[in-house]
Design goal:
6 helices, DUF4062 domain-containing protein, about 45% helix, Rossmann fold, 5 strands, 5-stranded parallel β-sheet
Length: about 170
């Protein structure tokens, strides 16, 4: 009887505010496709972690604190996605996605951050947009190499390529 294959599981947090729901779905699909193409050969499986599917109601702490304990701290990497919203202030960061990204980085976990260049909606919240732009500028000043995309399909294409490159660098090269 042959031995069972042992796969390493990598949990990738999809960190974003509510205005990029299509991109969140795409990130989940791209991760699923990576598994179909690569998991058996690489003995590695990726799991897209989203608060909608991986968290549960709980009391006793602020919402982001609960999410950090339930899902963020167990993740190995993150994909951050921003367009017009930074999110709701958590008391520790301008938005939940920002807090999640910074928390993972503080713990030595890799992060890819993307910004949409798509046309702005007519009802854009100017303060939220300014906060996104300020966050992007801060990241650029730190020397971060940030991803930009024109539309959801462009995001899909870029994330597919970048995920293949980064998973190999982050988790497969020893």
């Amino acid at each position: 009887m042959a031995g069972k294959d042992v796969y390493k599981k990598i949990r990738i947090l999809i960190a974003s505010p509510s205005d990029v729901s299509k991109e969140r779905e795409i990130a989940e699909e791209v991760i699923g496709h990576w598994n179909i193409v690569n998991s058996d050969d690489r003995k590695l499986t990726l799991e897209a972690v989203l608060w909608e599917s991986h968290s549960a109601p709980e009391s006793g702490d602020r919402i982001q604190g609960i999410l950090n304990k339930q899902i963020v701290d167990a993740c190995d990497a993150a994909i951050g996605i921003f367009w017009t919203r930074i999110g709701t202030d958590t008391g520790f960061a301008q938005g939940g996605a920002v807090e999640e990204i910074e928390r993972l980085e503080k713990n030595g976990k890799p992060v890819m951050i993307y910004f949409s260049l798509n046309d702005l909606p007519n009802d854009v919240d100017i303060e939220q947009l300014q906060n996104v732009r300020a966050f992007k500028a801060r990241r650029q000043c730190k020397g971060d190499y940030l991803g930009e995309y024109e539309n959801p399909e462009d995001f899909r294409n870029k994330l597919t390529h970048h995920l293949g490159v980064q998973v190999r660098r982050w988790f497969l090269e020893l």
